[in-house]
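Example 499, ligand nicotinamide-adenine-dinucleotide.
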Amino acid sequence: MDVREYDNWIDGGWAGADRKVERKSPAHGRLLARFAQSDEQAVRAAVGAARKAFDTRSVWSSMPGAERAKALGHWVDLMTRDLERLALIEAEEVGKPIRFARAEIEWSIELARYAAALAWQLPGDLVSNIGDANLGLVTREPRGVIAMITPWNFPMVTLFQKLPFALAAGCTVVVKPSELTSGSTLEIAKLATEAGIPNGVINVVTGSGRTVGEILTGHRDVDMISFTGSTAVGIRIAQRAAEQVKRVGLELGGKAANIVFADADIDAALDGILLGYILNQGEECVQGTRLLVEDSVAESFLEKLVERSKKIRLGLPTDEDADVGALIHEKHMEQVLSYIESGLEEGATLLLGGNRVTENGLGMGYYVAPTIFSNVTPDMTIFREEIFGPVLAVTRFKSVEEAIALANDTNYGLGNGLWTKDIDKAIRVSRELRSGTVYVNTFLETAAQMPFGGLKQSGIGRENGLDGLLEFTEVKSTFIKLGKRTHALPHTLTTSARS
Ligand code: NAD
């Protein structure tokens, strides 16, 4: 297997770097890629290219929306052409099974296709009721140069919930992907140039967050920071943004609950709970990591869930039948195992898993068995903290009120799910759940038109949908006087008084 060598992508071409960071496979330990460890000069060059492309209005920011849509359409075609290659890079660098990586690229392309259509129709308003001699225009303009900082768990989807929307609005961009998974981001930037998106519109600088990320967020020519990652780093980003009164969009952590009522379609709920806690090895911001199950059905539900969970197949990224892959790195695996340890110490009952997996050729990777704890109480660490591994914490409840209170008993508010055949209950509970998304009788559903984002410490702002486009725009009010101006100036200052 060839090692992929990457530089930064700046102003439509590769820009060399003296220092490199290595990415080894979390599934089998072999060297996969080398990325640039960027310095201040590289970040300045990337922001400079984005600034120039934005300020030279005809290049992109004031191009007719239809033209931008056309260029984005070509880009979509090239990504579709290269889907398999991009999926393999994604699978290997993240450690996830290839079929899920494929689905991720397909979904990213879908988001780009949707955002391209939005470029045709940036909304605006005409205000006609401010007097006969006045007309108001409320227009939307691209925000400017956007710094995008993305995580490692879904390198493409987290980027594509931002990038095509910002481009559709007319912004230019500098992306700082995770230092662990930068390959696909660099590849799609190169494809953008091939598709005819002008130089400087998309730039990518790689390297660690603490160095490259800090330089980028502090750069005065960056107008907005759009960040996806942990709540801890999100707080730091918000502080940096505040220093220069920059706009900020934050997509942060989560601790979703999946509520199963006794009157649910139990088989459907089992599918949803299973997918919810194991998808992407549990490295998922909307992971259904807390199962709240009604006491009267809890015993039999958990028996079935454990039986189904035993069939989950762990495998290498290229294993077409694998359901769960490797965790991102050794330190993260150890952290997940220490959360499992805390569950045991704090008195939860281990129903399944709880261990590292090294059998069947997985010994060189960071694999953790699907793990289920029951008798979890709200004071336990595994109920409260984001684990980011295939670990499910189960708590029983006896009433609708108790279920809602348990679900909302968290600092996070990204997503929650509920399962019931009673429509009144479904609507009542979904209204009372404090999260940006609620799934009723389904889980981890997606649609490009539906906004995505969090309440509480899960973030600020929304991605996807029309809201996702508007995040990257500024509102401008323009007053237009029709006919002769009769403003209420002091008499002495009017033109007639002076003449
Ligand atoms: P992270 O916060 O450690 O890193 C995210 C990005 O920020 C990386 O590119 C990193 O290099 C960079 N970074 C780190 N320190 C920085 C700093 N001081 N200044 C600027 N940039 C810095 O997150 P992670 O471990 O890569 O990803 C996992 C986290 O992301 C989880 O908490 C998960 O819930 C969250 N996440 C949220 C969403 C969402 O849409 N809400 C989606 C995916 C992941």
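Summary: The chain has 17 helices and 25 strands.
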